[in-house]
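Hey all, sorry for the wall of text incoming. These are the two entities for the joint prediction.
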Amino acid sequence: MHARSSDEEPLTVGVIGAGKISTSCHLPVLANIDGVAVKYVADTDKDQARTVAKAYDAESVQVGTDRAQVPASDVALLAVPVGVREPYLEAFGNRSIPVFSEKPFASGIEEHRRFQAISETISCNYLRLCFSSTRQLRQLLTSGVFGELRRVRYAEGGIVGATGRPKENYQSDAALRGGGMLLERGCHGLSQLVYLLDEWDHTVEAVTIEWQDDFDVDVRARLVATGDGRSIPVEYALSRVRPLETTAEFVFEHGIAAFDPEDPDGRITVRGLDGGLGRDLAFEHDGRWATTFAQAAYCRWQEFLSLVRPGTETAGTPETMPAVTELISEMYDRSPPPAAKRDEGEVIEEESQ
Amino acid sequence: MNVDREEPMNVGIVGGNSQVATELAVLLEREDDVTVTPIVRNSMGTHFLSRCGFDCRVFDVSDPSEAETALADVDVVVVAAFAWQYSNEGFQSRKARHTNESLVRNSIEQSSTGTPVIYFSSLAAFGDDLGAPSHSDWSLYTREKRNAERVLAETCERHGEPGYALRLGNVHGANQENTADLVAEVADSDRVDVATDPDKPSNALHTVTLCEGVLRCATGDVEPGRYSLVNEPQWTWRELIEYYADPGASVAFHPPYDDADIPKAALRKGWELAENRESTLRTFTVFVPDSINQWLFYKYLTFQRGGEIGNLERETWVQRNTFAFDPIPGPFVTGLTETHRVLERESVLEKVFSPT
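and here's what came out:
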């Protein structure tokens, strides 16, 4: 790890990427963490880097082709599209600078392993793990108060209309974004599922992905979680073209617990099997965990900082979650876009001739 | 505009992927002799519309050359797009103002001569006339909408083109957040309590009526100008809430304090002032006979307990800042079919937008 001259000096953070996630989330959160100072803000857009850096009394850096030119810092935030992360990770890895990376962590499991190998200390911003509802549901699962878990239903999304994005943005570029909806958005919900069913193995039994050109717009999957000597089905749906009701529903032996996995303020509701409880009961939030996105980002930063601050007890929360990347990779492999299937067919046809 | 056309009327919707525009597109497309071309700035916003079979165009109409291409064969332009001050690029009020002006100006100047342009303004443009603190003449959204209307009027006048500014009421429909929020609150409840006067006009506008209003403007049945657009006739809050509540549900309305009742209003204000000065006022009670102190105390308890009871959370307590709005003024788009009748016969929205 990059040596700091004194424990009284703030921990310096280098920010790579001055886009929305940095300006709306990370920078204002970092400004509210004691003992932390933003050292520089780097972006390919020098005006954006300058405007943002000025607001946080930091140095502005325009990123060029040589990623190793970014200044030194104690830790680095990597908030750039997944397609351009590797050079930065190499640069930081060579300098032993811990990295807090935005999600998705990697576009595939091979890349994921490669990124892990580059950096000594690296974490990913799966901030939904810090939602009060997510933590409370994990407590329910580990306590066994409702009996054995029988099945899970997860649905997220709905009709996506206005995107709020300009015409040219990284999401429109397949190479930059590294994947589609399942990678960019689905990783959040899958991180929650994997975290909640910790120590279970997760596999894909069946998957159907609807594509428009090279972008996945609808995913329906049957996953299987295996653990504790048994397997349970996990019904998974993610869409931007179907009017879905977003919910994560856990059916136990003695009841059903559900919450909105996307809403930091969502509460867990409990109902009986076949309406046995009468009216649904709702949990109060756990004040130790987040009910807003900013709080969740703050908690996730604290977990990361516990890895890098000397003498701090580590939070013990998952860092990069390779199981999430594995699930996504497998779903994409089993239901690729039509163009990929055609290419594959052409290769097989050529080989057989 | 050539009204004697052999081809269907091509309605280009700028910002065609917004909630309102998406639903409007679905409704317009099932009309005879109408085809819809959603015009969207970002390809990521085309997925649902494409899945519904629409042939979307990806162009940024705030750019004149892109607008020219996007609007080349369009017979009517609906401008549903609106640039917000806060976006992925940060907080940029001036840029948003410029974009909003360009969207309107280019829609007029880059479409064919005689093409009607219909701009979706908002009841927010009424500002102070709404009678609600959230929408004054100085609210940024109010000023943005008024400014866009001004650009529409000036540009249309300069070029001699037909332009319509429609100040839309609170839009309801199968794809609308207003409706989803209301349904989430009132559906499946045996009892619904609503914090408003039931007979007060709601300013609701269902998309089926919006569609009809757009068509009347598009076909020239309404003279160019600025109009308000709400359900026909205006729905009261009772009609709107009961439309979405369960048929067997009991719906109770609780109008807020009527400040026209001067003695009651004065008494309430008096108690509120006294509460703020309680510890000081108590000092003076030693100079007053206890019989009067007792009387005042019991009167105060009635007021204070009333406040607690008023805060009791009912099973379903519907509260909206739009309850404070006065009925929006006209002139209104004329010749509309009764909204209830159109809703009864319209089923396409349920098929397209119902959750699966």
